[in-house]
């Protein structure tokens, strides 16, 4: 497996883009590296990917009702798979409820 940083570097168009664009490109690459040939993830694979790649944001969220609702939906036995759009919605939802987001908001930038 080729490291994400090398994959990013191989996308010539990303050479002159913003940090935010690189962040979204990274999310897309992480997703694509785990997705099946149809570009989808099973719910179990989605949960595993979130736990391994997004642990800083989901750590400590276990008692929040919205977090439990999201994880419960991923635990359901279902043939439904997650596409990239739904995955990104999960990332945004988990980010918005995370304690880490508050810490990020509190970071002071200096110029």
Automatic annotation (TrEMBL):
A family per Pfam: S_100
Database matches in CDD domains: S-100
PROSITE patterns: EF_HAND_2
GO MF term set: calcium ion binding; calcium-dependent protein binding; transition metal ion binding
Domain EF-hand: 62-97
InterPro entries xrefs: EF-hand-dom_pair, EF_hand_dom, S-100_dom, S100_Ca-bd_sub
Protein's UniProt name: Sentan
Organism: Phaethon lepturus (White-tailed tropicbird)
């Amino acid at each position: 497996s080729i490291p994400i940083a090398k994959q990013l570097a191989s996308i010539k168009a990303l050479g002159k883009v913003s940090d935010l664009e690189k962040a979204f490109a990274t999310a897309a690459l992480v997703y694509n590296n785990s997705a099946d040939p149809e570009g989808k993830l099973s719910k179990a694979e989605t949960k595993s990917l979130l736990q391994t790649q997004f642990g800083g944001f989901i750590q400590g969220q276990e008692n929040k009702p919205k977090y439990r609702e999201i994880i419960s939906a991923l635990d359901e036995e279902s043939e439904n798979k997650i596409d990239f759009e739904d995955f990104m919605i999960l990332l945004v939802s988990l980010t918005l409820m995370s304690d880490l987001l508050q810490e990020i908001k509190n970071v002071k930038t200096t110029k």
